[in-house]
Amino acid sequence: DQQVKQNSPSLSVQEGRISILNCDYTNSMFDYFLWYKKYPAEGPTFLISISSIKDKNEDGRFTVFLNKSAKHLSLHIVPSQPGDSAVYFCAASLSGGYQKVTFGTGTKLQVIP
Amino acid sequence: KAGVTQTPRYLIKTRGQQVTLSCSPISGHRSVSWYQQTPGQGLQFLFEYFSETQRNKGNFPGRFSGRQFSNSRSEMNVSTLELGDSALYLCASSLAGVPPGTDTQYFGPGTRLTVL
After folding, report:
1. Can you give the pLDDT of all 116 residues of chain B as single tens digits?
2. For residue A76, which of A92, A93, A59 has the smallest C-alpha distance?
3. Lowest-confidence range among A20-24, A50-54, B74-78, B92-96?
4. Chain B: nearest CA to A36, how far in angstroms?
């Protein structure tokens, strides 16, 4: 049972435009959400997170939006840069869950120069 | 500060063998988690250790086991290897502060295991 779903395996965006990566979850108990970026031959690196008490968190070019009623979150990257080309993983956890983080299957973003 | 290190980086084994993977967390980090990454399945949580105790476990068979040492270094072991165990095994460390589950995890580069 995939509790965190990223339904788009890949996404191509022109440099300078907005990239929107989507993620859906089924477990309404999740209260903390994270995005990780992964380059080939490297481990995932933390990008941005959001608590369920918020609906938006911004860090530079990256903004995460959370819609609890729809059990949906999205990552916006503006403007997109070629160096953003990577696989992006959405993840969710329970704040009392002792690091049991549930990851999605990833979306491969390609930013075209 | 050194990042999370994993050894070896690549392994080739045959069915039925066993394998041990090692992870050294970032200095000061006391929580170590292990994940299996396969195409189409994303990262699947294996287990998490804190202060030498397993605090949480994913849905993997008992052939997958782990341990953590007093210096927070961790090992995972897979016995009786199957073809389906071929994957990238990732280790992540965190401070495991309060509240748990919200610490940022720092990942190592992974160990690529191929089972023939």
Report:
1. 679 999 999 999 999 999 999 999 999 999 999 999 987 778 999 999 998 999 889 999 999 999 999 999 999 999 999 999 999 999 999 987 656 567 788 999 999 999 99
2. A59
3. B92-96
4. 10
> Which of B13, B7, B10, B8 has its CA nearest to residue B78?
B13
How many Å apart are CA A56 and CA A65, to the nearest integer?
A: 5
Give how far Cα A11 sits from Cα of A91, A102, B93, Å: 18, 22, 30
State the DSSP code for A82: G
Residues of B near A (Cβ–Cβ under 8 Å) read 4, 31, 33, 35, 40-45, 48, 50, 55-56, 58, 90, 92, 94, 96, 99-110
